């Protein structure tokens, strides 16, 4: 028997794709319009998936109220922010959705009371582009 | 080669989270507003996922018309009902989404003509909370 | 020049369609499965639409933060509740979506700092059934 | 007989709510987290609604291919841009959704071959906040 | 006081845009890829909107069960059909969404027990193209 | 560490379920209304999922711009077409969604610059029926 539970939240951030390891010309070629100097932004959808057994007494896999609070702490870091300018993590790595979903995964894992239950994080950058990260 | 097919249906039910194994105070603490004495309700989304090979003659994994009928039998048990009061299964276990998705899984499995194809069931309690169950 | 702004929220409630002005038999005939004695429930979507001019200084039609708080007060009355048993308004009138959307309209109007801006309320009972009310 | 046709497109932009007519303190109070100095961003949904009669020969209200091109010209101005820094219109007025939807309305109207058909523009800032503009 | 109620259904049809009043060349120019000789198809979303007063005894604007049956009769004509080849109405007029939504409007109006309540019909051809018709 | 990225596109096609290996009577029995002689159609949603490591320099799993072009080549084969009449693949096999998603998988795999990254394809035939294929 395997159960999973998932919680979805959204956040709205600005960012610009630009890698310090590439020339301006290469950045423009690799990232296209996402390299616009003044940046752009998204309404991101963030989904956290936990996997495990269910407590027979409560019938729950994890305390949803606790998960909301733990996710809220992470959302405070990214919501209504400029990822590159306001979040330390993205000073050294480009804020591609691959790196953003990894950041979210690591950020929620360190806050979960039972981090071993974390299965994966999913990030919708737009309705058409979706990214996942797991260990 | 692995194929899956999924069918989604919806149902609307009332329920209340309350465990017979906990005191009233503990129920209130664990379930919060979901423990409201008079209950609340949801439009649930139920997704059944089958996995297997495709019949080369029909090009189908499973007869979708048959699956619809089999799911309809299960929906008759829960749709426009109070889960705790109208469904026997939830007299002894709390109607958390974890337990509801398990009930749906077992209920559809016993009705499938080829139950070995059942991979998992997914239950959307709200747009933000999603649960899965598999063996 | 006419602007509108809309805010959407959701709430999860139980209810039962049953009119005190009709016999049990007539209730069953008129409301069908929605008359199930133990009730059922929905994830309702509630949309408030305001209409008016925009303040040239702030570029806003209405303070969205204030609207959120005003809607939250109304949501406290209906969310995770049994409409018929927990909300006084539905003791005398059946909790059809027509009556629910009217209740929401009147409840938010009395809380808005500028009630004359309220254009209409919209209520999604399910993905397939949508109701609106305006004066 | 009245027909309308609607075309939806999306774009992803950064912006910051900040009015030149208000002090820093007032900006922070009025706009809250939307006043974050480094900005934030959205996946906007833009809907253009045309209204009129249908050409009996073609059975169409307006040439959809032409509308796509006309909307694409406007999208080039805002998509993957910072509204405040990259779009002249928002140098003098704050980039609230009320002002953005008005800008989109005026921008598409000046490009339509039959501007008298334009009924309104709708802008979804997030899943929860929606704005319309019409004359 | 004005109430509206809306019911949404879906249907899946094939069609081809081709006007008998235009040459093959003109058809290709006007309709583009929608003029593909072998046709294409859509999952249409059909929304019927009724407008009127609410019966104080039942709390309802119209009998939803009756509306479902009346819409089902219309759906039988178009669902899993080729609009041009299987529906008489489209033998003489091109099956543009403008004409399809008008056909749906007229077809449901003639079946409603209170046709004066019909306000409009809405047709989603795709997620991006939406059409309405009213008298 | 495992990353996936997904790109979603849509296409609109006509088709008819009819197997050359079955009699007319059997086709009608197996496929029901999907066997309508003149066909029907869908707005399909096609999702391509890639799985692999992320390039630390670009922060990307795969070049999204390249994937869009590769998917566009496949979309040209099926979009605004009649699957059975316009696509060679479906001359010999019935155009069930199981076979369509397999065709899409094979078609995109042969176009990817790194085909080993392809994890699976997902096809939404309608909002209720979803199919996946992987090797």
UniProtKB/TrEMBL annotation, chains A, B, C, D, E, F:
<keyword id="KW-0456">Lyase</keyword>
<keyword id="KW-0783">Tetrahydrobiopterin biosynthesis</keyword>
<dbReference type="GO" id="GO:0046872">
    <property type="term" value="F:metal ion binding"/>
</dbReference>
<keyword id="KW-0479">Metal-binding</keyword>
<dbReference type="InterPro" id="IPR038418">
    <property type="entry name" value="6-PTP_synth/QueD_sf"/>
</dbReference>
<dbReference type="GO" id="GO:0005739">
    <property type="term" value="C:mitochondrion"/>
</dbReference>
<dbReference type="GO" id="GO:0006729">
    <property type="term" value="P:tetrahydrobiopterin biosynthetic process"/>
</dbReference>
<comment type="pathway">
    <text>Cofactor biosynthesis; tetrahydrobiopterin biosynthesis; tetrahydrobiopterin from 7,8-dihydroneopterin triphosphate: step 1/3.</text>
</comment>
<protein>
    <recommendedName>
        <fullName>6-pyruvoyltetrahydropterin synthase</fullName>
        <ecNumber>4.2.3.12</ecNumber>
    </recommendedName>
</protein>
<dbReference type="InterPro" id="IPR007115">
    <property type="entry name" value="6-PTP_synth/QueD"/>
</dbReference>
<dbReference type="GO" id="GO:0003874">
    <property type="term" value="F:6-pyruvoyltetrahydropterin synthase activity"/>
</dbReference>
<keyword id="KW-0862">Zinc</keyword>
<comment type="similarity">
    <text>Belongs to the PTPS family.</text>
</comment>
<dbReference type="Pfam" id="PF01242">
    <property type="entry name" value="PTPS"/>
</dbReference>
<dbReference type="InterPro" id="IPR022470">
    <property type="entry name" value="PTPS_Cys_AS"/>
</dbReference>
